[in-house]
Amino acid sequence: MNSFPAKFEPGHAEVSLPVAEPMPIRQFLDLSRKIIETIETVIDGKREAVETALTVLLAEGHLLIEDVPGVGKTMLARALARSVDCSVSRIQFTPDLLPADITGVSVFNQSEREFEFKPGPVFANIVIGDEINRASPKTQSALLESMEERQVTVDGKTYLLANPFTVVATQNPIEMEGTYALPEAQRDRFMARISMGYPDPASEIDMLRTRATSSPLDALTPVVGAAELSSMIATARAVFASPAVEQYAVAIAQATRRDSELRLGASPRATLQLVRAAKARSALDGREFVLPDDINALAVTVLGHRLIPSGRVGVTVGGYSGETIAEIVTRIVAETPVPLGAGTGD
Amino acid sequence: MTLQRPALPKSTAAMDLRMSGLLFAALGCAVAGLHSILMDSAWWFAALGVVFVVLAVAAATRYYSRRTWVGTAAGALAGFVVLTLFFGAGTAFLGIVPTGGTFARFGSLAQAATDSIARQSVPAFATVGIQFLLCWTIGGIAVVLDAVAISGRMPALTGIPLFIVLAVPSFVRAPLSDAFLFELTAVAYLFIVRNRLRRVQPGVAIVVGTIAVLGALIVPAALPPVTPADAAGSGIGVLAESINPIINLGADLRNSNPVQALSYTTTSSTGEYLRLTTLSNFSGKQWAPATPKLSRANTLARVGDPPGLTTAVASPAISTNIQIGATTGQWLPTPYPATKVTGLTGTWLWQPGSLAIRSDNSSMQGQKYSVLSLDVEPTIQQLQAAGSSASDPLAAVPKGLDPIVAATARKVVAGAKTDFDKAVALQSYFRGGTFTYSTKTPAAEGYDGSGIDVIAPFLQAKEGYCVHFASAMAVMARTLGIPSRVAVGFLPGKPGHGSANDNGPTVYTVSSADMHAWPELYFAGVGWVRFEPTPSKGFEPNFPSAPSTGPSTGPVDPSTVVPSAPAVTATPNGSKLANDTTNKSIGPGASQNAAQVGWGGVSLVVLLLLLASPAVIRVGIRRRRIDRIRLGDNPAGATWEELRESARDLGFPAPSSQTPQQLSGYLAEVLAVSVGDRDASLAALKELRELVEDESYGPPAYNYYGERMADALLVVLRGLRRSASLPERLRALLLPATLVDRALGRAVVRG
Fold first, then answer.
1. Do A221 and A310 reside in the same domain of the chain?
2. Are residues B570 and B631 in the same domain?
3. In the prediction, which pLDDT does A282 show?
């Protein structure tokens, strides 16, 4: 897909409206339902993964899809990108990929006798980073910096990235040779990590039938425009998170820092992103305020990849540390009292 | 969804203060009801002082502390300090800090109290011990009231302790309860519950119902020794009036359900008149026995000589074995004159003069003892030869006596020469047929009871019972210069089994209907001689002598050596009595000390309160929460906490780490299989969850959901209770899991 523009023009990245207004929740639900339905035409039986992906998109986060090859990681990322009418770029990470291949380069324009910035694939609304752990750490960090800062600095000049901007990265935890596992700090930049998992037999049979001849991906048509997407993001951002819910999120994060099973707990950024993701999830649920259930449901997805277990459960293959982290997070959530009332708790 | 927030009720502090005042008033009225069993009023002020301190300290503490139970605890502590100050200041450090000596003193005071309760009649003198016990109990009740009404927010439950206090006089004897004070207390109680009447609290209703039912089932079962007597309505109340047995003697005789008072065997050929005491002071409205301080030397190993008796009079010794039943009293029934009594427990001393035997620290109840006494058998000649004793103080005519009494006496004895002849003439006058035995007429005509004022009406109406006959004859004898006194005691009773075909001794059974009074007249050289003026009762004294004693022996019928048939059949239920008495066990274990029963009752009440206290506390917590919800004080938190804890009490896992949706999802499954109005419960649960979520997690809004939440909560709780099994519900009521968790300091997060 590597369809970056031939020439960078100022304002190119600002493909969306600079200030988006929240939309009525009914319209929001309608659009989000359309997006999910569209994605589900290509990804069968992965409702949860699809919803999480959309949640991350609406919460302005970045998504890390982690699983064995061939379960539809890239398919999900591309379907998500295709269902929204906005600029999409795809980077296939390889060991020889250079930072400039991501951010773009300044080249000397002979005719105008000046350096001209050629934007890299990162200048898009949705950036798909395939097999991100195959690139060298240097290249990885170029992407990850732009993810956090939402800007790119080349030759001392800073260029703002597109808005909305979401990176959907995939990585393969099985292969070890020639991969560079994402460092903790970088994993922390992703709002959520999901794994696809194998489809159930029925879905797999379905898939055989529908994909025998052509890729259904080509048949996807965008259902949401970039402006609408911005508006949806604004809607999700306007969801109210009460002090009680914030307290709950903080309590869970604090518990991960105290837990003896964990060497590294959740960062404050994790807490922030947990609440932000919860807001998007609430909006997708048609609510105007966050419930503890949102926090609850997202805890493993949002916190799982940031935590480092202490000792025995620490088999990190490309940052993938399996069920045990999920179990620890589930346990922590099950041990954290849910605050009620006007933030005063019990 | 948005409702106008209703005006909040008056501030809780003011309400609590008002409640304290009402509790004080109610308890004051209820305690005042004890006036019918306690004399004077010092005890009332003492008890009210303790109550005041308890409630005032509780209220003041509550003013500074938001936790109401701190107030109750402070009140209880203050009450204890005041009790220490009142009753154990000498033993306490700085007068208020109790030491071991203080508790020892408390113990001895309590012991003294039970002793004097057992010994005294009503109205009793409020000894220090009784005051101690009263202050202690009433102070405790004040703490309970405070805890229940203010800390527990269950003012309706205050009725139970208040009623217990009000019912105390009725326990002693039914007519003693004071209707006026009962009503005053009831009014105060209505004020106490007034604010609460609007709302139905099923929990409270259940607790009240449970306590009432348990009480109704357990209390009668646990109080067998006293209840049969009380239940039969007989009660030997007269004997409980141990200071003055003559009071209500009439009431006792009128009682249609007499009970066995005692039984005895004797070596005498006839049954024995068993004397309790004598009344010799005939002045005043009511006659009373003299109760001088008894000399410790007057032990029963050697009872003093009968006054006036000389060796010239034949007086063979007889032995009588007496077994007392459930009758209480401090006077000991013995034949006159006793010379030696053995087998008694407690300190019993004889009284000089009357030779009545009395105890200050024991009761006749359940006693089994042997009496050696003299069968004084003066001959008629000896009696006729007796000189005049008109100068004896006991021959003094009481002041204010209607002259008609003396006139009648003179008319009756006209022609009699000696004192003895006069006495016999008086006896014949009463037994001669013109007088009728009736226990009802005196009450109907208004001359019931004793005292000089009843004699003239009695002589007029010629109907009365033993008290009238005895006192009339005694007073008339005095107008004739014969020293006299009235003895109170028992008729010889009914000879029982063994008399006909067994060789064993005759057992006489004496019932409460055999309570009797008779005159004793004094003859120099012979001493006090019993007469029997009451027609159809007992038998006349038999004076062996020359048969030709003229008219005076006319009425004397030597054949009446055993109680005449009328003596038994005089009571309507005489035959029934006979059956009852023969069937009744009179073993020593059959009866119990009244004090023990009292303590048993108290400990039973305490036990019941203890058993009920988890339920009371739990219901109190629920009521406080519902109050908070209705007031809009963090209603979501209170609602959900209550739902969670109620579910946990009922055995459903409901950890605090569950979100409202998770818990309501689980509870919806529970309710879905419940009986009753399932849809209403489910709808209420859904509404509750939505309201709680909106309130807890929604954007700030000035919505007031308190009433809706509280109502929905009550519906859901009802549904949950219906879905739980009966054992779980019982356990939830009597031993709520959340209370146990609280007590153990456990926080239940994971369920």
1. no
2. no
3. 92
Looking at residue B192, its pLDDT comes to: 81
Strand ranges in A30-150 using DSSP code E only, listed in sequence order? 63-66, 84-85, 88-92, 104-109, 114-119, 126-130
Would B506 be classed as within a structural domain?
A: yes
Whether the link from the prior residue into B337 is cis, omega within 30° of 0, is yes
Together in a domain, B282 and B187: no
pLDDT of A253 reads: 92
Could B634 and A296 be called an inter-chain contact, meaning their C-beta atoms sit closer than 8 Å? no
- A291 and B641: CB-CB below 8 Å? no
- pLDDT at res. B606: 78
Return mean pLDDT, chain B: 75
* B596 located within any domain: no
Same domain, B99 and B172: yes
Residue B606 belongs to some domain of the structure: no
Reply yes or no on whether the pLDDT at A281 is more than 90. Answer: yes
* Residue B708 near residue B1 (C-beta atoms within 8 A): no
Q: Band the pLDDT of A276: cuts 50, 70, 90.
A: very high
Band (pLDDT 50/70/90 cuts) for residue A3 is very low
Q: Most B CBs within 10 Å: which of A240, A247, A338, A344, as the mutation test of the B interface?
A: A338
Residue A38 pLDDT greater than 50, yes or no: yes
**Both tokens assigned to B91:** 């033993």
Q: Does residue B610 lie within any of the structural domains? A: no
A96/A178 same-domain check: yes
Of A185, A215, A238, at which residue does a domain stop? A238
Tell which of A204, A238, A272 closes a domain: A238
| Nearest-angstrom CA–CA distance, B501 and B180 | 58
pLDDT band per the 50, 70, 90 thresholds, residue B205: low
> Residues 6 or more apart from B285 whose CB is under 8 A from it?
B451, B453
For residue B696, give the nearest of A335, A337, A340 by CB distance.
A340
**For range B667-694, the mean pLDDT:** 84
| Position with higher pLDDT, B213 vs B425 | B425
* Burial status of residue A258 (CB atoms within 10 A of its CB: 0-12, 13-18, 19 or more): exposed
| Total structural domains within chain A | 2
Least confident range from A19-23, A331-335, B83-87, B501-505: namely: B501-505
Are A98 and A247 part of one and the same domain? Answer: no
Cβ neighbour number for residue B391 with a 10 Å cutoff: 9
pLDDT per position as a tens digit, B584-602: 333 334 344 555 556 667 7
Regarding whether B631 and B563 lie in a shared domain, the answer is no
Where residue A316 sits, what CATH number does that domain have?
1.10.8.80
Tell which B residues from 689 to 748 touch A, by Cβ distance under 8 Å.
692-699, 747
**A84 found inside a domain:** yes
CATH of the domain at A131: 3.40.50.300
Percent of chain B having pLDDT more than 90?
A: 0
| Domain count along chain B | 3
- Per-residue tokens: B137: 């109990």
Q: Nearest CA to CA, how far is A163 from chain B (Å)?
A: 28
Q: How far is B637 from chain A (nearest CA, A)?
A: 5
Q: Which residues of A touch B640 (CB under 8 A)?
A: 340
**Same domain (yes/no): A271, A123:** no
Q: What is the dihedral of CA B650, B654, B659, B661, to 10 degrees?
A: -40
DSSP state of A236: H
Q: Which domain holds residue A303?
A: 239-341
CA-CA distance, B100 to B105, in Å (whole number)? 9
* A93 CA: distance to closest CA in chain B (Å): 42
Residues B568, B450 within the same domain? yes
SS3 string, B244-310, reads: CCCCCHHHHHHCCCCCEEEEEEECCCCCCCEEEEEECECCCCCCECCCCCCCCCCCCCCCCCCCCCC
**Among A36-40, A155-159, A323-327, B573-577, which is the least confidently predicted range?**
B573-577
pLDDT-based confidence at residue B207 (cuts at 50, 70, 90): low
